[in-house]
Amino acid sequence: MIAWRACTAGALLLGAMSVAHAAAALPSSDAGEKIYRQGLLETGAPLRGQREASGLRVRGADAACVNCHQRSGLGTTEGRNKIPPVAGAYLFSPRASNLDESARPYVEGMRADREPYTEQTLARAIRDGVDSEGKPLSYLMPRFALGDADMAALIAYLKTMDVRTLPGVTDTVLHFATIITPDADPVKRTGMLSVIEQYFKDKNDKAFLIGPSARMHPSGRTMYSKSMFMVPRRWQLHVWQLSGPASTWEQQLAGFMAREPVFAVISGLGGRDWTPVHRFCEREQVPCLFPNVEVPVDADQDFYSVYFSKGVLLEAELIAGKLAGHGASSPKAVHQIYRAGDSGEAAGAALTAALKARGIMVQSHIVAAGAGGEGVAAALRQAEDPDALVLWLRAADLAQLGSEPPARAAVYVSGLMGALERSPLPGAWRSRAEMTYPFDLPEKRRVRVDYPLGWLSLRHIPLVAEQVQADTYLACGLLSETINHLTDAFMRPYLVERLQTTIEHRIMTGYYPHLTLASNQRFASKGGYIVHFADASGVKVVPDSGWVVP
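Now predict its structure.
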């Protein structure tokens, strides 16, 4: 269905968390969130804890509950240790004889066969390490000397964590959006939408063609379990097409969200500036997964936005590492050319900053956005006698370069902007140029990419932007796998957390050799190659070295 619109040593609350007496005023869940996520008390003092067995002390951010129980409060698994959920919906849930009888969606580490916590027994657990039945908690769980006001605030925050109601989730439908900026490439837009629309159609056709299991009650749950199986839901796609200047995009997105609440944002396509979309997703706390963008927002402290790669920012890091890796013989005169208003502008700024930190200055030559090929030629003339020349240019500009590169310059080309191995560089430039390549090599990724290409062919979808279409297919597949692991525990932060554990097991990773995510990591592919052309006319590229992670 498609709708169109223009554990560190932190707070291991293992199965547990009394307010001796709540204050007359209602406790602030905001203050509790600060304790849970930052390890800071309402006064600003650091949270302090101590493990009873070892005497190990933790404080501040290292003591924050989020380190182990995750932002969702639904816990996780670390080796043999299962870290249980501390969301109020689980802590205060009535006792059940076993997991099958629990009314809560299944998550790893949950216990159903224990007495529910009260505020008093929860406070005892946090302070003394004793669970709701008076049994000792795991030795991993620190004991925290929280005052009554801070304890009340923390418990109030835990009670806000609920899996029962969430925008974009109904008993029968999961709502998702894909976002397209007005400066997105129209060909890539067509390719991206053709994949995501067909994937959603296939997903819905398959789920409802097979129908619910014979062992499934009309409610969608199995007769054997109330918690471990998902209710089948149709996927609804909303296309949020932005318009106008970037300064208005966040307001437009807020309007879309108000009219069409979604559980998450998947794929999408941007131009030179994705920052307003990224900022919106963080503010609204909605997962924004794997948009097709060349200039992602590099903010590790953020949580909800996840990208396949750093794009041209990664390319800048690769070039900086190569140029600065020659020690005393590193180039002194580095020049770069990019068009105003294109992705190369951000890449150029990143390269300038990276090389400046290494004592190498960069001179930039900017081609006006509307200038023709003569604009690039003029920029080349201005780059007098460079030791290194970096070209952040599109294929059309590369095709119009002069017959010969500067005599002694080492030439670097953005593969992401310049069409990778299909770059139309003139022959003399091809024999000298080195290209950043933030993907696996063509011969190494062939089998992984053949799978989505075969999927496209069987559905008669034109191949118009291979890398974007392959990435979009991969993003949809990762979303589907991760949703299957939620087992009806629909919390937005839990989707991101489960994605972090799901992605590393993915074998078919498309253009990328491997994908991994961990806490505070927003980019699943961490490296790339610097390659050169095998000859002056073909498309075969040869790596200068192995896979490089800057």
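The chain is about 35% helix and 15% strand.
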